[in-house]
Amino acid sequence: MENEVLEDLFPFDDELLTATVMKRPSCTTCARPMPQCVCHSITERHDTATTVVVLQHPAEQNRQLRTVPLLQAGLVEGKCQVHIGKRFKNLETIITPRTALLFPGRDAVNCGDVDRGSYDTLICVDGTWPQARRLYQKNPELHRLPKVMLGPSERRSVYLIHTQPTDMHLSSLESVGRALEQLEGIEGLEERLVRPLKEMVRTQFKFGALAHGTQAEARIVRKLEVKQGYKDLTVAPKLHDFDYDSF
């Protein structure tokens, strides 16, 4: 309880590394600075049978490289609704009898195993994994929803300018894109929705960004560095053999 009170008083306490910068003019569609706009890579907007509802942690608004605006841009207007907060008092107006929560767990069913048309609304929690877990814990209405999770796939995240916990973790855009493809059986939907994200990552590479490994890989490297006596330990390993030209 004490931790929850502190978090309400200091809502971004887990975002100490998020810098406050002077905002540059940004594209109103993809939310990228105008010189880095990726809208040219969005060739169509998809009219899915499922409406996506994103419950977004407030700290996401301070992030420079967000993926939810790209998701909104890739779906027709009204098919991706974003609600920002920590406790959502209006969930009863959002939840329908055919609503599912995209959230992993022992009681979650693989999206590919769900009968087509079972759900018309898919709720996604957007934030870091600690933030996502807290959002889930603070909103008991979510606990009563059927859970779905992503089915097996050989695809790794293309969000390589962000350090993911493991190579199984995806950005919100990628997660929803894959879930919709598997729930609705729309072949290639994930790839088409992720196209502007890949373009955003390419643009960051051009400005000098490096491809990140995962936090799990970083822990392995740090253990080796400790044994070897290094003092400046790895925070996020870079993919040294990454082929930037072919990305």
Whole-number average pLDDT? Answer: 84
What is the CA-atom radius of gyration, in angstroms? 19 Å
Q: N- to C-terminal separation? A: 46 Å
Number of strand elements: 6
**How much strand content do the residues show?**
5-15%
Oligomeric status = single chain
Unreliable segments of 5+ consecutive residues: 4-21
Helix content: 25-40%
List the strand order in the largest sheet.
2-1-5-3-6-4
Q: Structural class of the secondary structure composition?
A: alpha/beta
Shape: globular
Largest sheet: 6 strands, parallel
Written as H for each helix and E for each strand, in order along the chain, the element string is HEHEHEEEHEHHH
The total count of helices amounts to: 7
Description:
With 247 residues, the chain is of the alpha/beta class. 30% of the residues lie in helices and 11% in strands. The protein has 7 helices and 6 strands. A 6-stranded parallel beta sheet has the order 2-1-5-3-6-4. Residues 4-21 have low confidence and may be disordered.
Topology summary:
Blueprint: H1 2-9, E1 51-56, H2 68-74, E2 80-84, H3 91-94, E3 99-102, E4 109-110, E5 121-126, H4 129-138, E6 147-149, H5 172-184, H6 189-206, H7 215-228
Parallel strand pairs: 1-2, 1-5, 3-5, 3-6, 4-6
Helix pairs in contact: 5-6
Concise summary:
By secondary structure, the chain is α/β, with parallel strands linked by helices.
Main traits of this protein?
six-stranded parallel β-sheet, single chain, alpha/beta, 6 strands
